[in-house]
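Have a close read of this protein, sequence plus structure tokens, and explain what the tokens say about the fold. Thanks in advance:
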Amino acid sequence: MTDTKKALTADHAQLTDEYAARRYFSKFEAITGHLAKVAAAMEVEGSLSRTEVTILGRYIGALANAFAALGNKYLLTGRDGTPVGKLDFDRHESGFPVFQEMLTMAVDAQQAERHLRNMPDAATLKDDMIRQIVGELTIPTKLQYAMAQRLYYEALAGGDIFWARNDPEALWQRSEGERRVFLIHWAIFDSQTNLPVIYLMDCEDSGRVSLPKDERRWPAAQSHLMAQSFSGLKLLTIAQGFDEDFADLHPKRIRRFHVGPMYSSAYTVQSGPICEVLREAKAPQGQDWALAWTEEELVSERVRSEKAGWFSSVEREVFTLDPFSGRGVDTGATRQERAIIMPERPYQVLAEKNPPGFTGVRKFVVSPGGRVFGYR
């Protein structure tokens, strides 16, 4: 085994107990529910438009569905009488399932219909479970497992899942003279960080045919964007590459949202102030977590003309790098904003400790009643 593989294996852990697995998925069910409220709060303060909130809400809902599907797949983890199956998750860096779990789910989705055809329907499984409980006075473990797997494949067949790859879609926004303005969005589950990453790009189209209807440009543009969608690449690199490869597509603004890491003293072993905060908070079950949310933004400042052949020229975008922090060259972005979402009790400890590095971090606090409040 190579050193890299050893390091990856050391970073991963398995949920070997069904109750631990249920608490893990229940935690993410709550977190994804709060994320939609965070996006709504960002709309109220003006940092996101209604369309952008709708798009982010769609991806967050798909992420919630992915966790619900995996929760059914691993519902009976570790129980005697069921096939061996344990969730692998990244306990050091992200707190999310590892990338391989998302790939496996995508493969399972391709065969979901076949599995469902060969399985008894839900009503039959329920009747069989009742007969075994009443007639044999035993727990119908194998039937429960069959039901859980059926629910898993039904969720995958439904299709509204956050996959490892969620290919670009283009939404028409308006026309500006002869140009059409599109909001292009796509998402991935990043294999390097084991985190969901969502992209939004404002793009002007000066082509003769509208981009989504152009059978030559649109597939090429989709392929290009997916090939460049890695957290290790700076937004500047992604935007410049797209600008250079498509002379009649003009990226004016691109944003990248990193959902996570998720911190929880019950499941993860990340280091740093936030882990100390969670340990000291000793929050009750279901409130022992914090989720990071990072937004990067790159904006085009102006356009320059560049020769293309003997008699023609093309537009090239000149992007603005962060002029204030002095790290614009390093980040490859115009700005970067970090946020953290957490329940009320851990936030109280965070506010009391006020650890270095959290001054500029946006805080979204979830009240016991489920309301979300934003603090600077």
About this structure: Confidence is low (pLDDT under 50) at residues 1-8. Residues 12 and 286 are 22 Å apart (CA to CA). The chain has two domains: 3-158, 165-375. DSSP finds twelve helices and eleven strands in the chain.
